[in-house]
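Researcher: Next entry in the queue.
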Amino acid sequence: MSLNTEMVNRLAAELADILKDGRIEKIHQPEKDLLLFSIRNNSGNRKLLIRSGGPNTRMHLTACSYENPPAAPMFCMLLRKYLKSAKILDIRQVNDDRIIVMTVESRTELGDEQQLQLVVELLGRAANVLLISEDGHILDCLRRIPPSETSRRALLPGLRYDFPDKPPAAPIGRTDAVQFPTDRSISTVLDEKYSCLEQNELRRRRAQELSKTVRRARDRQQRKLSAQAEEYRQTENMEQVRREAELLKANLYRVQKGDRRLECENYFEPDCPAVSLSLDPMKTPQENLKNRFRAYRKLKGAREHLSSLIADGARQLDYLNSVLDELNRAETQQDLEEIRQELEGTGILKASRDRKKTKMQRPSAPFRFESPDGFEILVGRNNKMNDDLTTREARRTDYWLHVKDLHGSHVILRCEGRDPTDTALKTAAELAARFSQASGKCAVDYTMVRNVKKPSGAMPGRVVYQNYRTMIVDTGEQEEET
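Model: Structure for this entry, 482 residues:
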């Protein structure tokens, strides 16, 4: 989709009418091909967006907010140097082409007035943004093009700027061009059309990045658990080593230095069969005995340590899988940011010193629903919210629901001192199944909140519960209780 020259003409006229005599207060570059200008004039504060490159190349006023990088890119810094507090004199289309020139008046470092031009070439893949000096030379551009990469126009700081040749066939009437109603603001239409699209794309991209990181941590944890399980299996002969040490201790008087084997009776078996124990002929009987008990203690310690490591690793693996489930159900940028902060809090992700934390006035609220008979139902969005919902917000007499043996959200059925109805329980159970890994028919456990406990030191979202019942739910079918 692209803007044609007729639309660019209308857009330039609209921007000139709204922004003329305004002053540029702030300049940001949230992404490599996205510029945002905060402009103030008599009509108030406006935000001008310029997207240069890709299928969504455009220029318009916007009401959307974008997260800025920790450090501004070089081109953004240059624009701030020359355009901060600059006054907008004119905005116009050039050569009946998809090019808009914004003329501004600013001051040099010595305080002298100068007129600069911000040239926005809305040319699809060849789109660019350039800052042109008073004498027509390029101060810098968003996308530099050296002579070695083009046979037409080189775009580098210091070169004289020439407008591109207009193509023989202007793109007016192209079938892929954005169509605008004549009775609405072009900026409003563009903002509505692209803001939701780009925000969803940004959310999807960030969710993929987080998911990739979590999957990498999960796969690493799985490999670690496999290695630990193999080491654990190697300790299975621990009891056999202990018995051999005890047999050697009981028959130590029969061993001489230099013996390679000891033949003795295995009194650990009912019929005391003969057994042969290997010995190190270079060691004394006492040293052979000490080595046997040392090997036993080593295997025993390793087995106990590995048992603890494997249990902790299994809990970590379960938690990582729950985070992947959260990411699959994340709906907003704030959901993703809260999951990122949760991962940083558990040490899965390292908090970047350079990354600015997203400014959120308050944590996101749980999903709220109401059963057909008027019971309020709350659903957690992530593990941390699940903890808060279950251990802090819910009353002891409320009901807690969770899909059985799968990852999913904690669901709280608020009872307000009443006994929950079958309809309310069914609705809450269906929500527990909906906000989980389950598909189709599944089991949902439910119990009073007072029967749900969070173990000390447990991972976010992890609880234990007792005195529960189970409901089988399936959309369109009757539930069964066990």
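Model: Helices lie at 5-19, 74-83, 186-233, 238-250, 285-329, 333-346, 383-393, 422-434.
Researcher: Noted, moving on.
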